[in-house]
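Re: the request from the purification team.
They wanted to know what the chain is likely to look like in 3D before they choose a buffer screen. I agreed to run a prediction and write the result into the notebook, where they can find it.
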Amino acid sequence: MKPVLIAVIVFAALPANLFVVLYHLTASWWKSEFGCNLMTLLASLAAALDLSLSRWIFGPWPGLSHAALFVYLAIGGAIWWRLALLLRAQLGARSE
């Protein structure tokens, strides 16, 4: 089961990491709040997948739980931020 799980994590981690690199190189993501949020969300998801992969390949390593705490906080923060963007856009559209 471990090889299958590692393959599935790689399947998800590769495009997540590739997206972060390509988005950084090809888009002016820092010029809009949505772009910043998208980069934050995908970078934190890529980091979570990378941490998971490192744990499965190398086992627990010093600082893993601290890194995971930071990454999960980043994911949560990015999702709350995305929710605020959604509400602002939807409520702003209603008032027009």
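For the purification team: The mean pLDDT is 95.
Please add any questions underneath this entry.
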